[in-house]
Design brief:
Strand order of the largest sheet: 3-5-6
Radius of gyration: 19 Å
Strand content: 5-15%
Distance between the termini: 28 Å
Mean pLDDT: 79
Shape: globular
Low-confidence stretches: 234-239, 256-290
Number of strands: 9
Order of helices and strands: EEEHHEEEEHHHHHHHEE
Largest sheet: 3 strands, antiparallel
Length: about 290
């Protein structure tokens, strides 16, 4: 980006991204009767995790750690471009890790994507962004958020006292390793949560090899051939959501996870890779309520 002045007029120049926010990509595909390939979701999550890692590992002019927390990660703040690369948008409420906490009674961000410590007004760290990215993954994979309620105040109570159902219970096509990753990202207690977004990108690194063969063609199909959904469009009924499925066996085979149960690096390889799934929409319809808006 750049900041400048021309003929007395100030301007801010920013990158133009030829793409769609993830919430719009998913809704446009579902409306057209197409499921979002799991490879697209995993690649987007890996890209977002890498972007957050840069922010979280920022240092100041003196070389001292000065991490930036986004605080508003959600499907509408992650944009995937025509080449299948996902970028983080809207650092409008971001702050450095050592800046003052939000004032009492003031919440900034989207309640459904906030971890409990942020809702309480506690000092937050990078694990708050990990939680929000996990909720984003949950919605993309299942069509629902981990917690729902009629109002924000009711939702805060639900988040504080209830445990989310593992996403695999809503979409059995999710490989166990991916299910475990998402569950660890949305743990209520942050000490039980993944400690670094690098764990997310490392776990999904092998899926990014499918960017050109699976991710890019799907994104371009949605952008060029399918009618774009209205971002505020209400989807009624279970049939509005088509569960994400793997289109290759790459997601299950060669899986790598780091630090899900210990701080030491752990290598997990699926013993029973999922067979290649046709690219058409799955016939599976989860017995769940209508998908929640991201």
């Amino acid at each position: 980006w750049d900041l400048g002045e021309v003929d007395g007029q100030f301007f801010i120049a920013m990158e133009y991204i030829d793409g769609m926010p993830l919430n719009l990509l998913a809704r446009s595909a579902w409306r057209a009767g197409k499921a979002v390939p799991m490879e697209v979701i995993c690649c987007a999550l890996a890209d977002a995790a890498e972007g957050l890692a840069v922010a979280h590992n920022r240092v100041d002019a003196d070389g001292k750690p000065s991490p930036i927390l986004h605080r508003d990660i959600s499907p509408d703040n992650l944009m995937i471009d025509r080449d299948g690369v996902t970028k983080i948008l809207d650092f409008g409420i971001a702050r450095t890790n050592d800046s003052e906490r939000t004032q009492a009674g003031e919440l900034k961000g989207k309640v459904p994507f906030m971890p409990l410590e942020q809702l309480r007004g506690d000092v937050i760290d990078a694990r708050a962004d990990i939680y929000a990215l996990g909720v984003t993954a949950y919605w993309l994979l299942t069509g629902r958020r981990p917690f729902t309620a009629a109002t924000d105040m009711a939702l805060i109570e639900v988040i504080a006292h209830q445990t989310a159902a593992p996403p695999i219970e809503l979409n059995p096509h999710i490989p166990p390793q991916l299910n475990e990753l998402v569950v660890k990202m949305i743990e209520r207690e942050r000490d039980q949560r993944l400690a670094s977004v690098r764990d997310v990108s490392a776990a999904l690194e092998h899926v990014t090899a499918l960017r050109k063969t699976v991710v890019t063609p799907f994104v371009r199909t949605v952008m060029e051939e399918l009618g774009r959904a209205d971002p505020d469009e209400s989807f009624a009924g279970v049939g509005s959501f088509l569960p994400s499925t793997p289109h290759t066996d790459t997601i299950s085979s060669g899986w790598r996870l780091r630090g899900l149960t210990t701080r030491a690096r752990t290598e997990l390889v699926s013993r029973t890779p999922i067979a290649s799934t046709p690219s058409g929409p799955s016939s599976f319809a989860p017995a769940a309520a209508a998908p929640a808006a991201p």
